[in-house]
Amino acid sequence: MNNTERIDRFLRGDLPEEEKKALETELSQNADLASELALQKDMEAFLRKQTQRAALRDQLQAVGGEFFQTSEKAEPGRIVSLPRRQTLRWVIGIAATVTLLLVARFLLQPNLYDQFAQHPPLAMIEKSNEAQDNLAAMEAAFNQQDYARALPLLEAYQRQKPEDLQVELYLGICWLETQQYAKANAVFQKISQTESSFKDYGQWYLALSYLKQGNKTACRKILLEVPAESEFAAKAQNLLKRL
Amino acid sequence: MSEENHLLALCAGDTPRIRFIYQQYAGQIRRWVEDNNGSAADAQDLFQDGLIAIYDRYCSKDIELSNSFGALLFGVCKRKWFDRLKEKNRETIVRKIEEERYTDDNDPSMESEAAFQELQKQETLTQTFALLSAQCQQLLTLLGQGVVGDQIAEQLGIANANAVYQSKHRCMSRWKELFTQNLKV
Q1: What does the pLDDT look like over A190-222, one tens digit per residue?
Q2: How many Cα atoms occupy the beta-carbon half-sphere of A141 within 13 Å?
Q3: N or C: which end of chain B has fewer CB within 10 A?
Q4: What's this model's pTM, rounded to 2 decimal places?
Q5: What is the value of ipTM here, to two decimals?
Q6: Residues 122 through 141 of chain A touching chain B, CB cutoff 8 Å
Q7: Chain B neighbors of A61, CB-CB under 8 A
Q8: Is A211 exposed, middle or buried (0-12, 13-18, 19+ CB in 10 A)?
Q9: Domains of chain B
């Protein structure tokens, strides 16, 4: 039993009396262990209140906006009548500037897919007791967005653990990012039809896949099916508005 | 509204009374930030961080506020701004503010330092929690919400409650490792 497990069981009151006494003695003599206990208590407290804390942040953000406004009201301008030809030159100039700004905005703005495709980081090491080298390489490649390098590593892992839905999801993301849409769609479709905790991810990524392929109709259709209780419900509504 | 009521309002998330806190102190903090090379947007972030720091330090722990709410809030905001400038390596400005830190009689430095450290800890917990796998995040969140092991096992497709706790230990170990690597001292 490692320290994390001993402390967890101690905090939950699940440690046999003898082990509990031994741990208490050790805690009074070992400062590092005492720090680990304090950190685990902080983590537990964080988990209990994280929703409430995030809600308070949103609330403060909204209230703060009222008191830290940066935009100042422009003073009303005077209306000056110009000769007709001069007016025409102004109109053409303004129209050209507006057009240029619109084109620049279109070119500089990241596309919708890039704005919405924020992949969760891959964290395999904590999930497995197996040899860590390959897992670390897989994590590093995916998290550095080197999907071509992550792909064969994930494929090899999936051959060993075909039942691991989480790995399949990340495999789908790699296929999506390397434009292998048929494979990506198939895997997202499959995950979206399971009753697992990844169901919502499957549905959301299927919509993203259609978005990346430029198929807005199919993307919209999937988004409309996202249920209110899905963890992607807010994002889906947001994307629907932007389509 | 009294200083003690400010704290109660913050802990309860009482919007009208939180608005009053902004009304009372936002101008003062905004002026200070703008005088020290910051913008109104920086001041807004800072003010928000200051309130969150006080929330983290005082709302779920049995610690009493011994200084005035306003002085504490101002102290935390200054400490946070100092830290942010330090990150940007703006040494001259930092030196100026650092000098001020040690000569400012109104800064309840011990309390604001403790609240600032609590904020750093909570922010690091938030950032490193987001680095865990989706499954770890879901599992730990459910446990934090008080959902029992058997239900979590069913919901996440894990064999049984025992396996849920084994996963929890692996996730917590990884989280502790990430936290230790990322905590700023």
Answers
A1: 999 888 778 888 999 999 999 988 888 899 999
A2: 20
A3: C
A4: 0.56
A5: 0.83
A6: 122-127
A7: 48
A8: buried
A9: 1-104 (1.10.1740), 108-185 (1.10.10)
